[in-house]
Amino acid sequence: MTEPLTARSLLFAPGDSPRKLEKAGLSAADLVIIDLEDAVAESAKPAARVAVAQHLETADRRQPHWVRINPLDTPHALPDLAAIVASRPDGVMLPKATRADAEALNRYLEALETAAGLPLGGIPVCVLATETAAGVFDVGNYAGCPRLAGLSWGAEDSATALGATSNRGDDGEYDFPYQVFRTLCLTGAAAAGVSAIETIYGDFRDAAGLEKMARAARRAGFRGMLAIHPDQVPGINAAFSPTADEIAHAEAVVAAFAANPGAGTVGLNGAMLDMPHLKRAQAVLAMRR
Questions:
Q1: Which residues contact 278 (CB under 8 A, 6 or more apart)?
Q2: For the segment 220-279, what is each residue's pLDDT rounded down to a tens digit?
Q3: Residue 26: closest CA among 59, 56, 50
């Protein structure tokens, strides 16, 4: 069974830029996503996939290096996979996907792992699950999906799919459809037993806006966030790490239940706590680094 993603920060780096790939690998990101999709022009994709395979073989991977391939309904996806699998990526991100696409990707990976002499099922997958209209209707359908380690969502591609002129209102917050997509991603990930990963924050110079979004995402239940620039990584890592006060409170909750074995409820500092409080405290302690 594939373990859920535990990365706080997942940093994109374009597959056709050796300089940016090196910079991403030297960053404090928990995970690097080498991008063969949006960050690489159509004409550059063949050369980029060769360069990515070479990078995977030669790079000193201080953190896991995943690859975002092109969507399965494009002519690039299978060449992407054929080029990179033998170089042992630590995972694959599948964009613009449905559950059927994720199942098809599993079959392709099995064939390529077999050909390369790699363990079957060893390459996990994260699905970008709301980037198409069809994908939105499938977000709650990923339970038992092979290789699945996480679900994320995309506000930009989903807006394009809907024919929107923007995905944000006058107040700068996401419009209603995209708030729904975020919620569906979070709920779908919980239903599938995998990690929910928050989408990007597009303005990498706006540290305060990034921090606000990241902290709200972690509070809601997301376990990591996509980044588009190394400067975003420290803020994301901090937002997705429990504070000293949170850890102290969680330890106190766990200790209170441990001191009252078999009790369904316990009192702590004047508050009555039950099993959901204990489970949330345990989840906080599991996020410690």
A1: 253, 254, 257
A2: 999 999 999 999 999 999 999 998 888 889 888 888 888 888 888 988 888 898 988 989
A3: 59
